[in-house]
Amino acid sequence: MIAVHQTAPAPALTAGWVRALLEPAAAAAGISNPPPVELRPTRWAGYCCAGEVDRRVVLRNTLHLKSKTQFAAVYIHEVTHRILGEAGATDFSHDARFFALQLYLFARLDASSFMKSERIEGALWVHFASLYDLQNAPAGYEESQASSWQGPSIGWAQDIAAELLKLNLSAEDAAKFICTEYPKFLHSLRAMPAELASVKERLRSEKLANSEWRKVNLQTMFFGLLGWAGLVFCVGVRLWN
Ligand SMILES: [Zn+2]
Question: Alpha helix locations (H) across 112-170?
Fold first, then answer.
């Protein structure tokens, strides 16, 4: 017979410990409605699935015992998936939208005096963001050809996060803002090869123009010197005679 178990609320002590860490993190990140947590023995540090009845995110049940900073960072990561999903990004991918929102939430933690004290050896919360969080290419781009989309995505996400810090939006409103801005970014990304080609063409024609200019100048200098030499010779011959 296959025994089937359902998850139960965590013991009060564990739940209290987890809440004491995650509630200040969620508040500092500006998460108005923080999703519940399920502690589960999982090989991933955490994950977030569609269709959970109470919006819960799953975190590995031993992670909080090893590093509370990493535990909070994984919670922020999974909540980023949840909030973006609720704002319309339903594919749970690690794309530029995800990278931008997570960067913004980590930046808010860095700006919070309480969460600053929770950092490991002065490392910033934004240092938890890595290329793992930007591993999915936009439609029409190859993930293996990251140079064509990953660099521009990082730049865009950093600009968006900086803009959001000025606006001081809640995490949920920030997700909506990012989802509105994302199509504009994709449009500019797709226009980029044409722009690059025109810049290269301009540089090439400027280089050609410069080399032509140098050639003309050398010719002018040569004939100028020849003229001067001729004049000096004539004057010298005249004086001598
Ligand atoms: Zn993820």
Answer: 113-116, 150-167
Task: Measure 77 CA to ligand 1 centroid, in angstroms.
Answer: 6
Distance 220 CA to ligand 1 centre (A): 66
Establish if 152 belongs to a structural domain.
yes
pTM of the model: 0.78
Tell me the CA–centroid distance for residue 230 and ligand 1, in Å: 80
CA gap 92, 89 in Å, rounded: 7
Query: For residue 94, how far is its CA from the centre of ligand 1 (angstroms)?
Result: 6
Domain ranges, residue 28: 12-192
- Note whether residue 221 is domain-resident: no
pLDDT in tens, 111-137: 988 777 777 667 899 999 999 999 999
Q: CB–CB of 119/108 below 8 Å?
A: no
Number of compact structural domains in the chain: 1
How many Cβ atoms sit within 10 Å of the Cβ of residue 66? Answer: 10
Q: How far is the CA of 81 from the centre of ligand 1 (A)?
A: 7
- Does some domain include residue 181? yes
> Over the stretch 56-78, which tens digit does the pLDDT of each residue have?
999 999 888 888 899 999 999 99
In a domain, 205, yes or no: no
